[in-house]
Amino acid sequence: METKQFKAESKRLLEMMIHSIYTHKEIFLRELISNASDAIDKLYFKSLTDDKVGMNKDDFAIWIAADKDSRTIKITDNGIGMTAEELENNLGTIANSGSFKFKNENKLDEDNQIIGQFGVGFYSAFMVAKKVTVVTKAYGSDKAYQWESEGVDGYTITEAEKKTTGTEITLELLDDTDDEKYGEFLDQYRIKGLVKKYSDYIRFPVKMEMTHSRPKEQSEEDKAANKPLEYEDYIEVETLNSMVPLWKKNKTELKDEDYKHFYTEKFYDYTEPLKYAHVKNEGMPSYNALLYIPGKAPFDFYSKEYEKGLQLYSNGVLIMDKCADLLPDYFSFVKGLVDSEDLSLNISREMLQHDRQLKVIAKSIEKTISSELKKMLKNDREKYEEFWKNFGLQLKYGVYSDYGMNKDKLQDLLMFTSSKEKKLVTLDEYVTGMREEQKYIYYAAGESIERIEQLPQTELVKDNGFEILYLTDNVDEFAIRTLHSYKDKEFKNVSADDLGLENTEKKEEIKAKEEENSGMLEELAKALDGKVSKVVLSQRLKSHPVCLTTEGDITLEMEKVLNSMPTDQKVQAKRVLEINPEHEIFGKLTALSSSGDNEKLDKYAKLLYSQALLIEGMSIENPVEFSNLICELM
Ligand code: ADP
Fold first, then answer.
1. Which CATH number applies to 8-239?
2. To which CATH superfamily is domain 504-633 assigned?
3. What are 63-109's pLDDT values in tens digits?
4. Among 121, 179, 326, 332, which one has the highest count of C-beta atoms within 10 angstroms of its own C-beta?
């Protein structure tokens, strides 16, 4: 009997399979079941037009049988089978249908990823088997053939005995090692689990004889004597797969619970989803999708460990567990799946990334998510706020990242707490509620709402009867800066130099006062020795003596955020110390200045500056000096 050699590239693939990492090896079953299903498909289609086939749809099935004694697992189908020539062509070389290209010749890691996630076909059997035997009889042929191989050394093809049309593949599993227990693939529950995981939606039944145990019937005497139950094994044929995927069913057939139950089972989340959408797209590419917004952010959602992505199916067969390309980062919280007939099962990750169909699907999914969120915001405010609490941060990052490329898509989904009633409002609601004379959308940033409320800078804006948006997340101010404006209204930090609230008369008055006291203001600035760029008289302060504001692009909040990042570059906002000319302290300062007591004036400058820092929630540089100064001046 002649042993034939594999074609070079098949040999290479085979080697890759054999050395694949263990966690990916389980997909061999998916591959063999998919092949069996394809073979049945072919015969089934034939049967529709050709009575000679003599089979009904219900006659078709795939069988799995495991035998612990011989360490074999057998996959049998009654599909179209293969002729000797087909055996030679199909299993001696890599099928050309497999778009498997060896671009990553030397990158085993990459290869392994491909193996884990994409269709790699028949050869994957060698990931778990030391010997593979295929016995097959083609439809319409009266001869059967056996193909057998122990891996890279080659294969043999011989004539064989087989009564019925179809294919039977037997794997003799590799011996267990310390880390790799191939024997587990003989366990009926493990097999069932794998079928459920990867092949649940194969259109034909995948059947297996399962052994269960049940208590034996007890006689009345034994019962009366309270004898312990005896157990016996019995065998039952089970169909392991559910065959019709939920997402392929008609929406009208499905109930709310069906969708929710599917979610909790499939995505291991015990919290019910907040919302789901069932998409059936008949266009090109055609696809079905189930999309879910989780009820709670996963514990690792805001960490590097979190992996976004949707499950990707090609015609009911899982080809990728987390296809990241299907979701933009700002919608990374969405869970679900996409099934398309227009994607090939044998597609590598690299090719998938450039797949035009996939891009079109991703775009359309993004649109669906966005419109579902908008619907929720409009029709179910409570739910949306719940959503916002869990995932709002991600949307704000989305506005800020990629240089604001996606801000227009996201701006109407944003919410911030408003100074009025301390409730969440959208930007649209804010703008709609703006007073006629109001030029800007005002916001204030700080670490908590309580803190922001105490900021002296908010007083003037509030006194004018204007609403303020309170920004409490680190990313908030960056996102707002990226937006720059909403519906032609510019955003304005309440600490900005120009609030657009100028009362010209008052402005003139203050200017005059500043000129009058320019010597004192300069002396104060000098005392602060570069910590502030200037000291000015404030228009915005009402009851507070001082506050810190900033000039230029970087605000104090942004400074805090930027400096908390792990880089060496520290930034500093350009600070301005504002003094309330209506406050008693101003009188004190002018008195000191005119009496020429610069030493004391300098001390006041330091005190006031430290005070302003504290109000801003920043730490003071020298607490000991601060406390000594207080005592001294008291
Ligand atoms: P692919 O499934 O991508 O074509 P495979 O390596 O898995 O690649 O299979 C190669 C070919 O072998 C298949 O295209 C099919 O023609 C044939 N084949 C595999 N398994 C079976 C089977 N159970 N019955 C009939 N033909 C099969």
1. 3.30.565.10
2. Heat shock protein 90, C-terminal domain (1.20.120.790)
3. 999 999 999 999 999 999 999 999 988 887 654 333 343 333 334 44
4. 326
CA of 35 to the centre of ligand 1 (A): 5
The reply to whether ligand 1 has any atom less than 6 angstroms from the CB of 458 is: no
Task: Quickly tell me which residue has 């109407």 as its tokens.
Answer: 412
Is 168 in contact with 134 (CB distance < 8 Å)? Answer: yes
Task: Evaluate: CB of 39 within 6 angstroms of ligand 1.
Answer: yes
Q: Does the beta carbon of 545 lie inside 6 Å of ligand 1?
A: no
Q: Is the CB of 99 under 6 A from ligand 1?
A: no
CA of 22 to the centre of ligand 1 (A): 23
Measured by CA distance, the residue closest to atom 19 of ligand 1 is 35
- Residue 273 preceded by cis peptide, ω within 30: no
Residue whose entry in the numeric block shows the structure tokens 């803190």: 451
- pTM comes to 0.71
CATH assignment of 414-493, among 3.40.50.2300, 3.40.50.11260, 3.30.70.2740, 3.40.50.620: 3.40.50.11260
C-alpha triplet 409, 414, 420: angle, nearest 5°? 150
Buried b (16+ CB within 10 A) or exposed e, 73-106: bbbbbbbbbbbbeebbebbbebeeebebeeebee
Ligand 1 pocket check for 122: Cβ under 6 Å: yes
Check whether domain 246-384 has CATH 3.40.50.720, yes or no: no
Ligand 1, atom 5, residue with closest C-alpha: 121
